[in-house]
Amino acid sequence: MSQPFKVVIPARYASTRLPGKPLLDIAGLPMIAHVCARASEAGAEEIIVATDDGRILQTVQDLGFTAVMTRTDHQSGTERIAEVARQCGWADGTVIVNLQGDEPLIPPGYIRDVATALASQHQAGIATLAAAVIGPEEIFNPNAVKVVLDQHGYALYFSRAPIPWERGSFTSTGGIPSGKMPYLRHIGMYAYTVAFLQRYCLWPASVLETVESLEQLRILWQGEKVRVQVVAQTPPAGVDTPEDLLRVGRILSGAEV
Question: N or C: which end of the chain has fewer CB within 10 A?
Fold first, then answer.
């Protein structure tokens, strides 16, 4: 029997480019409905939408899912999830998957994968996903975060830079990797235990995460491990712009594959 896990979906109303993003219509349903459906398809034992807005709370409840109100002053979705864990009184060993509220196309299998990756080992309190980089352009794209792993599948480092740096190959070819090293792109989905989550929220921001603008570097800075599960491919992009909304709508309505 697989390890039980919970899914918490942080969902704020405020968005610079798409105000009220969780409630925007996609193929006849609010976006948050599609995200909750992906979590349900993944087999989560409990799904909770963590919000700071009454409109989102009511919509989620009308859809038949659970939502809880959280404080408005959280700096990140991680802090919002930690508040939910405290409200619900979840035990330290409970596995929580952080599913972003703007990811209606996330494969349900990936949600299970990250929960299983965490539950199947005991060295790390957090797990995440990665997929193979598909070409040199992605390696050098600072918006595609790269991760290097040790032989046991734990993260050595995350960076926006092309890591590892193939000194001879990159110098002689102008940026074409030799193929000796499998480059991996980080996929920003996380599973954590409640105990890890509460520790994390007490740590100050680190120099590394400030320089790279990568919050996950706070974990490595503290000397803790991050388990990384490699999956088949990078999932479809979420919804950040009006163009994304149209693209996802076409896919979920069956007009685009």
Answer: N
Distance, CA of 97 to CA of 42 (rounded, Å):
11
162 near 238, Cβ under 8 Å?
A: no
Residue 124: how many other CB atoms lie within 10 Å = 21
Cα within 13 Å of Cα(171), Cβ side: 4
Task: Scan for tokens 């992009």, then name that residue.
Answer: 237
Distance of CA 187 to the CA centre of its chain: 6
pTM: 0.91
Q: What is the DSSP string of 216-249?
A: THHHHHTT---EEEEESSPPPP---SHHHHHHHH
- Identity of the residue numbered 223: G
- Residue 160, φ and ψ in degrees, nearest 5: -80, -15
pLDDT in tens, 205-241: 999 999 999 999 999 999 999 999 999 999 888 898 8
Closest CA to 105 of 214, 241, 231, 253: 253
- CA angle centred on 131, ends 128 and 231, rounded to 5°: 70
Distance from C-alpha of 180 to C-alpha of 222, rounded to nearest angstrom = 31
| CA 172 to mean position of chain CA atoms | 36
Q: How far apart are CA 34 and CA 49, in angstroms?
A: 12
